[in-house]
Design brief:
alpha+beta, Penicillin V Acylase, Chain A, six-stranded antiparallel beta sheet, 5 helices, 18% helix, globular
Amino acid sequence: MEGPVHNGGMCVIAFHWQPDGLVPLLVAANRDEFYDRPTAPLAWWEGGRILAGRDLWSGGTWMGVSRDGRFAAVTNFRDPLQARKDAPSRGFIPLRFLEEGGSAAAFLGWLRKEAPRYAPFNVFVYDGVELLAYESRHDRNPPLAPGLHAVSNGDFDEPWPKVEALKAGLAGGDMDNGALLAMLGDARVYPDARLPSTGVPIEWERTLSPVFVRTPTYGTRASTILRLGRRRVIMLEQRFGAGGPEGLGEFQFRTG
């Protein structure tokens, strides 16, 4: 069985959007990647404005938050027919939003023009007021009504088994870190009849179906929990390697 044809990017992310709540955005996500791809753990970047993990191969990130409470995350779209080795890293997309400081709407207006340069992706961005999403292959902004949403390497809220499992877990109401990490550690493989058809062999559809992916060379590298409140932000990252857990990082700060 050959390795996964997709590369980089967080592979499943669920979030509870409560724009009128004290914590407008709760995020629970797993990033899947080859174990030998160099990655820096969650940390403040130079200048102290951006908190994110770092892909040391390309220099970008898959998910991050800024000191003033902005947030961005990206996933790739699994389709071997649209794989492009010459395309720029999609990890620069959330990084640019976090660095720029403009509105979510203005950023997606710019990104729509730039999207053809990249292999297909999903992105969502939060500017402290508005949470917006963009699917590059459809050139559309899927609506994000208040409530539960999730995305993997398909469309937003497309009912892949792992997407539905995370939404159900968040709906269960147990939101402490232990429960969320346990939810993100769910390694059950789903029946073939429930799997999407993304153009990879059925063996890989099956292997990539769990929330938590594990193979000898590729798997979940980080489980991340973010509580983005109006005045306080808490971000936690549990890291993994081929041998299992590798470290836990947690950061708290006040926005502004």
